[in-house]
Specification:
With about 180 residues, the chain is mainly α. The protein contains seven helices and no strands.
Length: about 180
Protein backbone atom coordinates (compact mmCIF):
# COMPACT_ATOMS: atom_id res chain seq x y z
CA UNK A 1 0.00 0.00 0.00
CA UNK A 2 1.32 3.42 -0.96
CA UNK A 3 -0.22 5.69 1.65
CA UNK A 4 -2.64 5.94 4.52
CA UNK A 5 -6.01 7.11 3.30
CA UNK A 6 -8.39 9.31 5.26
CA UNK A 7 -11.95 8.13 5.80
CA UNK A 8 -13.12 10.71 3.27
CA UNK A 9 -10.68 9.39 0.65
CA UNK A 10 -11.79 5.82 1.31
CA UNK A 11 -15.42 6.84 0.95
CA UNK A 12 -14.72 8.67 -2.32
CA UNK A 13 -13.01 5.57 -3.70
CA UNK A 14 -15.90 3.34 -2.60
CA UNK A 15 -18.38 5.69 -4.27
CA UNK A 16 -16.22 5.67 -7.40
CA UNK A 17 -16.48 1.87 -7.50
CA UNK A 18 -20.23 1.82 -6.90
CA UNK A 19 -20.79 4.35 -9.70
CA UNK A 20 -20.48 1.30 -11.96
CA UNK A 21 -24.12 0.66 -10.96
CA UNK A 22 -25.05 4.12 -12.28
CA UNK A 23 -23.29 3.43 -15.56
CA UNK A 24 -25.24 0.19 -15.89
CA UNK A 25 -28.45 2.15 -15.36
CA UNK A 26 -27.32 4.57 -18.07
CA UNK A 27 -27.01 1.60 -20.43
CA UNK A 28 -30.61 0.64 -19.68
CA UNK A 29 -31.79 4.24 -20.18
CA UNK A 30 -29.93 4.49 -23.47
CA UNK A 31 -31.50 1.31 -24.79
CA UNK A 32 -34.95 2.39 -23.65
CA UNK A 33 -34.54 5.79 -25.29
CA UNK A 34 -37.15 6.84 -27.85
CA UNK A 35 -34.25 7.31 -30.28
CA UNK A 36 -33.54 3.57 -30.28
CA UNK A 37 -34.96 1.85 -33.35
CA UNK A 38 -34.86 -1.67 -31.93
CA UNK A 39 -34.97 -1.54 -28.11
CA UNK A 40 -35.34 -5.31 -27.78
CA UNK A 41 -32.38 -5.97 -30.06
CA UNK A 42 -30.32 -3.40 -28.21
CA UNK A 43 -31.28 -4.90 -24.86
CA UNK A 44 -30.13 -8.31 -26.08
CA UNK A 45 -26.74 -6.78 -26.80
CA UNK A 46 -26.31 -4.91 -23.50
CA UNK A 47 -28.21 -7.02 -20.97
CA UNK A 48 -25.42 -9.58 -20.37
CA UNK A 49 -22.98 -6.69 -19.82
CA UNK A 50 -25.36 -5.01 -17.38
CA UNK A 51 -25.84 -8.22 -15.41
CA UNK A 52 -22.11 -8.97 -15.22
CA UNK A 53 -21.27 -5.42 -14.16
CA UNK A 54 -23.88 -5.54 -11.40
CA UNK A 55 -22.68 -8.91 -10.11
CA UNK A 56 -19.02 -7.91 -10.21
CA UNK A 57 -19.68 -4.51 -8.64
CA UNK A 58 -21.39 -6.22 -5.70
CA UNK A 59 -18.19 -8.16 -5.05
CA UNK A 60 -15.85 -5.22 -5.64
CA UNK A 61 -17.83 -2.96 -3.30
CA UNK A 62 -17.92 -5.64 -0.61
CA UNK A 63 -14.20 -6.34 -0.87
CA UNK A 64 -13.41 -2.63 -0.85
CA UNK A 65 -15.41 -2.26 2.35
CA UNK A 66 -13.14 -4.89 3.91
CA UNK A 67 -10.13 -2.86 2.80
CA UNK A 68 -11.63 0.34 4.20
CA UNK A 69 -12.48 -1.36 7.51
CA UNK A 70 -8.96 -2.65 7.79
CA UNK A 71 -7.59 0.82 7.03
CA UNK A 72 -9.67 2.28 9.85
CA UNK A 73 -8.46 -0.42 12.20
CA UNK A 74 -11.95 -1.84 12.61
CA UNK A 75 -11.25 -5.22 11.06
CA UNK A 76 -8.54 -7.84 10.90
CA UNK A 77 -10.11 -9.35 7.81
CA UNK A 78 -8.44 -8.51 4.54
CA UNK A 79 -9.93 -8.42 1.07
CA UNK A 80 -9.93 -11.64 -0.90
CA UNK A 81 -7.52 -11.19 -3.81
CA UNK A 82 -9.14 -14.03 -5.75
CA UNK A 83 -12.61 -12.51 -5.45
CA UNK A 84 -11.35 -9.10 -6.60
CA UNK A 85 -9.47 -10.58 -9.55
CA UNK A 86 -12.50 -12.70 -10.48
CA UNK A 87 -14.84 -9.72 -10.38
CA UNK A 88 -12.51 -7.57 -12.46
CA UNK A 89 -12.02 -10.42 -14.94
CA UNK A 90 -15.80 -10.81 -15.19
CA UNK A 91 -16.22 -7.17 -16.20
CA UNK A 92 -13.37 -7.20 -18.70
CA UNK A 93 -14.71 -10.42 -20.24
CA UNK A 94 -18.21 -8.91 -20.37
CA UNK A 95 -16.81 -5.88 -22.20
CA UNK A 96 -15.10 -8.18 -24.72
CA UNK A 97 -18.29 -10.18 -25.17
CA UNK A 98 -20.27 -6.97 -25.70
CA UNK A 99 -17.84 -5.87 -28.41
CA UNK A 100 -18.17 -9.29 -30.06
CA UNK A 101 -21.98 -9.01 -30.04
CA UNK A 102 -21.77 -5.54 -31.61
CA UNK A 103 -19.42 -6.85 -34.34
CA UNK A 104 -21.75 -9.77 -35.04
CA UNK A 105 -24.69 -7.37 -35.35
CA UNK A 106 -22.69 -5.17 -37.71
CA UNK A 107 -21.88 -8.18 -39.92
CA UNK A 108 -25.56 -9.12 -40.06
CA UNK A 109 -26.43 -5.54 -41.02
CA UNK A 110 -23.91 -5.70 -43.91
CA UNK A 111 -22.25 -2.44 -43.11
CA UNK A 112 -21.00 0.00 -40.58
CA UNK A 113 -22.80 -0.25 -37.29
CA UNK A 114 -22.48 2.03 -34.30
CA UNK A 115 -24.24 0.83 -31.22
CA UNK A 116 -26.17 3.44 -29.29
CA UNK A 117 -24.66 2.12 -26.05
CA UNK A 118 -21.03 2.46 -27.20
CA UNK A 119 -20.36 5.82 -25.47
CA UNK A 120 -21.60 4.46 -22.13
CA UNK A 121 -19.60 1.27 -22.61
CA UNK A 122 -16.50 3.42 -23.22
CA UNK A 123 -17.17 5.18 -19.89
CA UNK A 124 -17.48 1.81 -18.18
CA UNK A 125 -14.17 0.72 -19.72
CA UNK A 126 -12.39 3.79 -18.34
CA UNK A 127 -14.12 3.45 -14.96
CA UNK A 128 -13.10 -0.16 -14.51
CA UNK A 129 -9.53 0.74 -15.41
CA UNK A 130 -9.62 3.33 -12.61
CA UNK A 131 -11.08 0.72 -10.26
CA UNK A 132 -8.10 -1.51 -11.10
CA UNK A 133 -5.80 1.32 -10.00
CA UNK A 134 -7.72 1.69 -6.73
CA UNK A 135 -7.36 -2.00 -5.91
CA UNK A 136 -3.71 -2.06 -7.00
CA UNK A 137 -3.05 0.44 -4.21
CA UNK A 138 -4.09 -2.19 -1.67
CA UNK A 139 -3.67 -5.63 -3.22
CA UNK A 140 -1.00 -7.18 -5.43
CA UNK A 141 -3.34 -8.14 -8.23
CA UNK A 142 -2.21 -10.40 -11.04
CA UNK A 143 -3.25 -8.33 -14.02
CA UNK A 144 -2.14 -11.15 -16.30
CA UNK A 145 -4.89 -13.32 -14.80
CA UNK A 146 -7.48 -10.56 -15.20
CA UNK A 147 -6.70 -9.26 -18.66
CA UNK A 148 -5.59 -10.61 -21.99
CA UNK A 149 -2.16 -9.38 -23.08
CA UNK A 150 -3.67 -6.99 -25.63
CA UNK A 151 -5.96 -5.49 -23.01
CA UNK A 152 -3.11 -5.10 -20.53
CA UNK A 153 -0.90 -3.42 -23.13
CA UNK A 154 -3.72 -1.04 -24.07
CA UNK A 155 -4.42 -0.14 -20.44
CA UNK A 156 -0.74 0.43 -19.71
CA UNK A 157 -0.56 2.72 -22.74
CA UNK A 158 -3.64 4.70 -21.60
CA UNK A 159 -2.75 4.90 -17.91
CA UNK A 160 0.89 5.42 -16.92
CA UNK A 161 0.00 4.69 -13.28
CA UNK A 162 -0.88 1.12 -14.20
CA UNK A 163 2.30 0.78 -16.25
CA UNK A 164 4.32 2.01 -13.25
CA UNK A 165 2.53 -0.29 -10.81
CA UNK A 166 3.05 -3.29 -13.08
CA UNK A 167 6.72 -2.38 -13.39
CA UNK A 168 7.11 -1.98 -9.63
CA UNK A 169 5.38 -5.31 -9.04
CA UNK A 170 7.75 -7.00 -11.50
CA UNK A 171 10.76 -5.42 -9.79
CA UNK A 172 9.53 -6.58 -6.36
CA UNK A 173 9.08 -10.11 -7.68
CA UNK A 174 12.70 -10.16 -8.88
CA UNK A 175 14.02 -9.22 -5.46
Amino acid sequence: MKKNYTMDELEVQHNFITELYDLSEQLVSTVESPFTRDPEGQMAIVEPLINDISDATDILAEEYMLIASQQRGKSNTSANKGKVEGALRKIFNALNDYNDRVKDTAKKAHGAFANIADPIVAKIQRRIEEVVVIFLEFINLSLASILHKQQLDAIKARDPRIAMMVHQHAMNMQQ
